[in-house]
Design goal:
By secondary structure, the chain is α/β, with parallel strands linked by helices. It has one domain: Alpha-Beta Complex (Spore Coat Polysaccharide Biosynthesis Protein SpsA, Chain A). The chain is built from 8 helices and 7 strands. A 7-stranded mixed sheet has the order 3-2-1-4-6-5-7, sandwiched between helices. Helix 1 links the parallel strand 1 and strand 2. Helix 7 packs parallel to helix 8. The radius of gyration is 17 Å and the shape is globular. It starts with 11 loop residues before the first strand and ends in a 20-residue tail after the last helix.
Length: about 260
């Protein structure tokens, strides 16, 4: 892995995994700092609202799923198309306007500086309680519990893993086997496990979030299922790391990579 600072301006591609984001897509796009972004790719996962109409009006690079395959499946297309477009850095920005689009330069900076390979935008590192910003208390408690378990198993000390605001160095996405992951929401944690298994460096920056009716939010039942799937993924990760049962999902796609201490 190349851990040095990028000597030339990287090609930054923003990917937007979209599903029924017609009411929030425009304001999300308009707040993107255009001088820091070379291309915006939107993948529509079978939306039934005006998402595609708005995306066309904005002149985005659009890819369309013929039906709703799921959040993880959407990200698979996002990352594959960003790599195909020649991205050096890929930033996932949800088009539901929950995360602040103006922070793209900050989330890519550790990658540009060569101090990180993946950067997560943390709602819990901002010094402001997410509950004060509208996060339901039960989501906050579950986030804290799962993050604690993940930190212990991954050997890290991040403030949160359950964020949809993420930046990746290109070679991370070319190394981890993200195509083998779930098509559902647990994809977010599976790819983190793959990043850790491959020895890439993860950093985080604080980001505020917005909770409002148009912003996507999982129900209590869906969140509970998500939490159980994360625990199952961590179980298999632990078996893989200890050599008890190897999993192709956590194996690098590249024959050679450097495992960092």
């Amino acid at each position: 892995m190349n851990a040095q600072r990028m000597s030339v301006s990287p090609k930054v591609v923003v990917v937007m995994p979209a599903y029924n984001a017609g009411r929030t897509l425009r304001m999300t796009y308009e707040e993107l700092p255009k001088d820091a972004v070379n291309l915006v790719i939107l993948v529509d996962d079978g939306s039934t609202d005006t998402t595609l109409d708005v995306a066309r009006q904005l002149g985005l690079e659009i890819f369309v799923h013929n039906r709703n395959y799921g959040y993880g499946a959407n990200q698979k297309t996002c990352y594959a198309e960003a790599i195909r477009a020649g991205a050096d850095v890929v930033v996932m920005v949800h088009p539901d306007y929950q995360y602040d689009p103006t922070l793209v330069p900050k989330i890519i900076q550790p990658i540009v500086d060569g101090t990180a390979d993946v950067v997560l935008g943390s709602r819990l590192a901002s010094g402001v309680s997410p509950m004060a910003q509208g996060m339901p208390w039960w989501k906050f408690v579950a986030n804290r519990f799962l993050t604690g378990v993940e930190n212990r198993i991954f050997g890290l000390s991040l403030s949160e893993y359950h964020t949809g605001y993420r930046a990746f160095r290109r070679d991370v996405l070319e190394t981890v086997n993200f195509a083998a992951n779930s098509d559902g929401f647990v994809f977010d944690q599976e790819i983190v496990g793959q990043v850790v298994a491959a020895g890439f460096r993860i950093a985080e920056i604080p980001v505020p979030t917005r909770y409002f009716p148009e912003a996507s939010s999982a129900s209590f039942v869906a969140s509970s299922v998500y939490g159980l799937r994360i625990l199952a993924m961590l179980f298999w990760f632990l078996l893989h790391r200890r050599g008890i049962r190897r999993s192709r999902r956590f194996d690098s796609l590249r024959a050679r990579y450097t495992r960092l201490p």
